[in-house]
């Protein structure tokens, strides 16, 4: 029987033992709910095929994969970041944007294929998820936020999403930022869009 754990953690100084317990569960194949600047998002290890399959059942399969990374150095392992992309990511407000980039071979082909080899880079910009990423030392696969924002409270996650959760890091209610999607996949200059979940990449009109 699946055992769900809900850890109440301090939003600014998360308890190390609870972060470690969550990291251990993720390594064992769990799906976790994590606080980010965009609200609560669901995550699992990128290389865990079974966990990724469970997680992706609750999102639109046409969406590019979204990777939660600790920093740019880690992100460059999974996504191709040229000078133009580096400047765009560096200059963006922390936690306010996700960046559409070309995946490297480090992202499993089964995941990258959904959007023609593209993936979304996101930095959670929250002390709790940053602390967890530091323990794991790897990027996490996360669910894209619904209509540009994640859930402001764990209990507001969709019912089908809650059904697959194994562990949650609960910091109470959040004030999610409206997340912008920055197109860096094409060779033209960066462009901005609001990209609602449920809309295929080919249907999005990028701003000039």
In the CATH hierarchy, what is the architecture at level 2? Alpha-Beta Complex
Strand order of the largest sheet: 1-8-2-3-7-4-6-5-9-10
CATH homologous superfamily (4th level) name: DHBP synthase
Strand content: 15-25%
Mean pLDDT: 84
> So how many helices?
7
Low-confidence stretches: 195-208
Distance separating the two termini: 51 Å
What is the radius of gyration? 16 Å
The main β sheet shows up as:
10 strands, mixed
What is the CATH fold-level name?
DHBP synthase
Instruction: Return the domain count.
Output: 1
What's the order of the H and E elements? EHEEHEHHEHEHEHEEE
Q: In which range does the helix fraction lie?
A: 25-40%
What sort of overall outline do the alpha carbons produce when their principal axes are compared? globular
Structural class: alpha/beta
Q: Class in CATH?
A: Alpha Beta
Q: Give a count of the beta strands, DSSP E runs of length 2 or more.
A: 10
């Amino acid at each position: 029987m699946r055992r769900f754990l809900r850890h109440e953690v301090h939003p600014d100084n998360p308890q190390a033992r609870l972060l470690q317990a969550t990291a251990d569960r993720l390594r064992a194949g769990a799906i976790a709910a994590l606080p980010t600047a965009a609200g609560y998002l669901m995550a699992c290890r990128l290389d865990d095929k079974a966990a990724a399959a469970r997680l992706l059942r609750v999102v639109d399969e046409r969406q590019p994969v979204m990777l939660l990374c600790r920093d740019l150095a880690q992100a460059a392992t999974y996504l191709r970041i040229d000078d133009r992309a580096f400047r765009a990511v560096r200059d963006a407000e922390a936690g306010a944007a996700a960046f559409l980039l070309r995946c490297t071979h480090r992202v499993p082909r089964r995941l990258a294929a959904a959007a023609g080899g593209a993936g979304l880079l996101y930095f959670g910009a929250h002390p709790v998820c940053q602390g967890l990423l530091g323990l794991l030392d790897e990027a996490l696969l996360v669910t894209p936020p619904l209509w540009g924002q994640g859930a402001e409270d764990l209990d507001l996650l969709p019912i089908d999403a809650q059904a697959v959760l194994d562990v949650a890091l609960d910091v109470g209610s959040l004030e999610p930022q409206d997340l912008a999607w920055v197109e860096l996949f094409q060779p033209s200059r960066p462009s901005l869009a609001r990209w609602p979940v449920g809309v295929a990449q080919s249907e999005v009109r990028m701003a000039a």
